[in-house]
Please model this.
Amino acid sequence: MKNSTGVTSKTIVPLGLAAAGALGTVVAGWSAWGWFTLIWAVLLLGAAAWLTRDTGFSASAATGDNPMIDNYLASREHFGDAVLPVWCRHIENSRTQMEEAVSDLASRFSSIVDKLDNALHVSGAANQSGSSMTEVFAHSETQLGSVVTSMKSAMASKHAMLGQIKDLERFTRELRGMAEGVASIAAQTNLLALNAAIEAARAGPAGAGFAVVATEVRMLSMRSAETGKEITNRVGLISSAILAASQAAEQSSEAEDKSMQSAEGMIEAVLNEFRQMTDALVQSSELLKQESVGIQGEVGEALVQLQFQDRVSQVMSHVRENMERLPAVLREHRAAYEASGVLDALDPDVLLRELQKTYAMAEEHAVHSGARLAAPAATDADEVTFF
Amino acid sequence: MAKTIMVVDDSASLRQVVGIALKGAGYEVIEGRDGVDALSKCTGQKIHLVVCDVNMPNMDGITFVKQFKQLPNYKFTPVIMLTTESQESKKEEGKAAGARAWVVKPFKPEVLLGAVAKLVLP
Model:
């Protein structure tokens, strides 16, 4: 701030104070001390002018002579002692909190990775059991197929038996025909015997012997007729029994055919469902595996990002240590003034050089010289130095 | 049996991160908070490799490697320096101390694992 005459207020205040002091001294001391007082006032003004010569602050020849500078330096030291530890504590507290939080975050990631590994392991095992399930499936399919085949061959032999029964039916029909043939032969023989008896009667006593033969033949024909009838009866019985058996066999064969077909259909349906299930299982475990690989990639990225805490923590530590140095720098400055009586300007380079010496990262040097940087990228494989 | 790797870093989060990467690859991990802590944990057990930070309180990484290499059991144990430090002079110090590789943070897990797999003792 400048006033109209272009003199800074920093100059005005000490000069004004000195002038007032000089005037006061002159007024108060004139009567008692006379010229001595006037000389003292002029000295006071001179000292003020010296003090304000360019920076506004300068030591008088001897240290500790100027209470204002002493007070100022003491208050500055007090300021440094009071403020910087608080700033540093805040920085350190934040750094610690961040470290704990990131550490906790990292351990959570670690447990996620563990769980993921377990899940992968389980799914891998499921996948293995999936493949064994496919094997079981193929095995069951073969076994059920052989059951169906043996059932089918049993059916075929049953059909053959049915054919044989039908053949029997044909035989009995033939037998019946033959029995009818016997009956007709018996009837004709009977007629023949009857004729022979008539001819024997006509021959009179000469035909008596022939009449006996004719009677015997007739009796034989009657017995053959009876036997033929009996054969026909029996064949009829056998035939109807065979027919009933054949019908029953045919019915049961039809029923078995139907149940055989439905069993085959059911087996196929069950196998289909089973196959769909195993296919789905194998697919889902494959999907899980792919997803897990993706998630592991993400976790890898997160692990790169989480390392920011280490960098930030280092930078904060470096800055904090540098800030902690400031009270000592102020103390040294005061001591130098007290020793030499010369109040030099504070040199920022002292602290900046010290700060620079603590830098570990290229990033810190860049930021120091005014660059704004994004977080550095993760190291690539070709950036690893092997010795 | 799983191979044992010692991770020495003053940052707990970085020890975690390195630990996750190594455990994920099937290694067992021992942790050291700084050079002094790590040396106190080198009690003669088999350590197949060490991953070590450079800037640490109490004892820095370079000093640790020098002292670690003095221990009869660990003379041939390979050490990978894992650090934010990328200055060539520091790398030379690491090489002179007996480190076998220098990896600059932040690292990709696969890059670190590649270096570990290359150097780890059988």
User: Anything to note?
Assistant: The helical segments of chain A are 9-33, 35-51, 67-203, 208-306, 308-340, 348-358, 362-368. The CA atoms of residues 325 and 351 of chain A lie 8 Å apart. The beta strands of chain A are 385-386. The first strand of chain A starts at residue 385 and ends at 386.
